Amino acid sequence: MKRNMIAAVALAAVIGAGATTAIAHGGATGVVKERMEAMEALGDAMKELTAMMRGQQDYSPDRVRTLAGTIDSHSGAAMTKLFPKDSLDHPSEALPAIWSDWDRFSALSAQLSTYAQALAAAADNHRPAGSAPGGMMGQGTMQGQGMMHGQGMMGGGMMGGGQGPTAEMLAQMPPDGVFFHLADTCSACHQSFRKKQN
Ligand code: HEC
Asked: What's the rounded mean pLDDT across residues 136-165?
């Protein structure tokens, strides 16, 4: 009897652990769940890319291409099709502005694809810089470089569906410069079209 209790509790713990994963998105279903999962995949890819750009993980052009491919596969039409009109079911954090400003939303989603492809194209341009290992230092360096590249390309003021640097220009850039544009596209879209979260 007691044994069975313990077994039951242990089993519940295991099932519980599984269930936690399944409801990681707060009970989202359908297309909301699908896009949250797609976004999570983007987040994971960006996490690993960030680690490589900061020198916290060995830089591998092949790995960069793979991760860029993952991002590309979830952007453009693959992303916009997960946002059918007024799909705001709980617990979605999407904003109605997506559909009132669909042109800009879909332009940002297409831009993500452009930058992901450019990152793959630029993956071999990596030059091991005086690697400042880890933490804030690494981040400062990465963003500093990104900012400079951004300014170098007139109208780094991107967004608004405007044209950023061309694919050819991007393919010549160091990968961390392209990466900056990529990350900036995530933020730009979230700023306009996702509820603020802290
Ligand atoms: C074109 C707009 C757009 C772009 C570009 C975009 N996102 Fe999102 N993202 C959203 C919206 C809208 C939501 C909220 C979706 C919802 O809750 O229904 C979201 C949600 C998320 C979430 C939370 C998912 C969850 O489980 O709640 C993560 C993580 C995320 N995005 C990561 C990224 C990353 C990383 C990038 C860039 C590589 C990116 N996104 C690019 C619009 C975008």
From this structure: 45
